[in-house]
Please model this.
Amino acid sequence: VDVQISLDGSGDLAAKIYRQLHDAVLDGRLRPGERLPPTRELAQRLAVSRNTVAAAYERLVAEGFLVGHVGAGTFVCDESLHRSRSRARHAPGGQDVQARPLWADLPAQPPIRPVAPRYNFRAGIPDGRLFPLEAWRRLISHELRPAAIASTEYLEPAGHPGLRAAIARYVGVSRAVRTGADDVLVTHGAQQAIDLVGRVLVEPGSRVAVEEPGYPPVRRLFRSLGARVVGVPVDAEGLDVAAIPKGIKLVYVTPSHQFPLGTPMSLARRSALLAWAERNRAVIVEDDYDSEFRFSDRPLEPLQSLDRAGRVIYVGSFSKTLLPTLRLGFVVAPASLQPALLSAKQLSDWHGDPTTQGALARFIDDGLLARHIRKATKAYAARHERIVAGLTGELREWLRLVPAAAGLHVCARLAPSATVDVAAALRHARQDGMVAHDLAGFCAEPPGQSGIMLGFGAIQLDDIVAGLGVLARGIRAAVVG
Ligand SMILES: Cc1ncc(COP(=O)(O)O)c(C=O)c1O
Model:
């Protein structure tokens, strides 16, 4: 669209562009889905630098008014419509209904771009092309037979009994998790599993420990429950157990494939963490979100199977092995916690969807999950290898690979001698269609770590070299000093 922007008068040009676009979105002159002029074009039209326009766009993207689709342009977000409507509904005199103050610091994350970038190194997503769609369709259709929906009673909060049994067998064999079907509670993803654990264990105002750097959604979740979240540093062996502050009763860890660094927790640290939990009568939440994909060494046993004191809660997810949109995960908790967890699940959403859960039960029992993981592991191993080759080759001047042999992402720290503005490097790369993550985004406490996280769930093998080439150009353009 041809937006009218006036730069009359003195003052910050980017702020003026920002303000006028902001108002145009809010009063509906720019409608959701509408495409904004490319930064270059608008900059030419207004006779300002492209960076000035980009700064205004970036601020509007960060605030959720616009969304950028790499390669396609910048668009007005649907959410801004909600905002303008909600503003229009604001009560006069500032009497609007307010959420509890802590929610002001926990805004919903901006929507993920529906248009995939050309070189998509986003972490945390599997390759939808590998998903065994035909088998899944058949199983879903079987679950939807008339007899299955004849009863319209609400179901057990713990989930489909067949799925609980299938998960217990599956994690028993593949991950040596010690459990029976009765101890498995099926959830809407790992996120809900951790939410339920938090609801039954976290006293508002108490402190919980998480890894630093770590997984932001879990940090935010604990904060939303009123906890004070303390970051505990992660080194080459995993969480620094000796650095857990006194008085902590719950610690959340990703020992199989630390998020984001990828480092597995050493056996010595696992033992130390279990001993710490036993000594302090504390609980360990073990998030084993993507370790099904392993590329070399034998996996270390989960904390859950090493635990002799019943202090570990094991959380799993099918978001990486199948699809994140299925919203399927589970929690294996000590028997003493089961009643409260079941109640929390029931109070939260009664139970999950039996059609999907029934299909997954059959999928596991028929050996299709194991087969799919074997096949996907081959594809992901090849991508992992190619990224590692790139990081230890052309990019070694600036980046140092953090060794890891599992999951769907790797990290690289900035080399000690490199003086690169990582955020600027990634901005440059994004303009050329390459998207990866800034490690600093996973650090809650300064000084953050400097580096890059590269996911390989979405990127195709043949695009990796070119994608890393774009990153290298971005880095070269962002060398400082
Ligand atoms: C550390 C971590 N835990 C859990 C998950 C999966 O969450 P969910 O099962 O809710 O999709 C992810 C996904 O990116 C993750 O990175």
In short: The chain has 15 helices and 16 strands. The chain has a mean pLDDT of 92.
